[in-house]
Amino acid sequence: MSDEQNDHDIIIEVRTEMRGMRSDLKELRDGTYNDIASLKRDKADNKEVERLQGLINDIQKKVNNDIEIRVRAVEECTIPPSEHKELLKQTNTNGIYLIIGIILIGILVAIMSVHIIGIRLP
Q1: What is the pLDDT of residue 105?
Q2: Whether residues 73 and 85 fall in one domain
Q3: Helix or strand or coil: residue 6?
Q4: How far apart are CA 84 and CA 26, in angstroms?
């Protein structure tokens, strides 16, 4: 009976070990599955980051090209130095007209005030 008891104990021990191994294998399989899923997610995230970085670079290039076009257009519209003197002459002429206009307004105000107050000049 001791052999049977001994065999029975060994079988129970083997079954217990088998159950433990099955649970260990299940945990290992589940852990491996989770690790693979995590790696796939990370890879997808990296691809998304690369795609977005490419879009950002494209947009930045378009913005820089637009700025370059606008700067060139402004540079083409600037006044060359040879025309600066002519503009200064026109500005000086406008200043003279302004002074003449102020003097004429002063004369008109004097005439109107004399007329309104009724003072006669001798």
Answers
A1: 93
A2: no
A3: helix
A4: 87
DSSP run (H or E) holding 17: helix 2-77
Tokens of 58: 């494209």
Residue range of the domain that includes 45: 1-78
Q: Which one-letter amino acid corresponds to residue 109?
A: V
Six-digit token string for 34: 């989770």
Angle (CA) 51 55 74, round 5°: 165
Percentage above 90 pLDDT, the chain:
4
pTM of the model as a whole: 0.35
End-to-end CA distance of the chain: 160
Give, in degrees to the nearest 5, the angle at Cα 67 between 77 and 64: 150
DSSP 119: -
Q: Does 121 share its domain with 68?
A: no
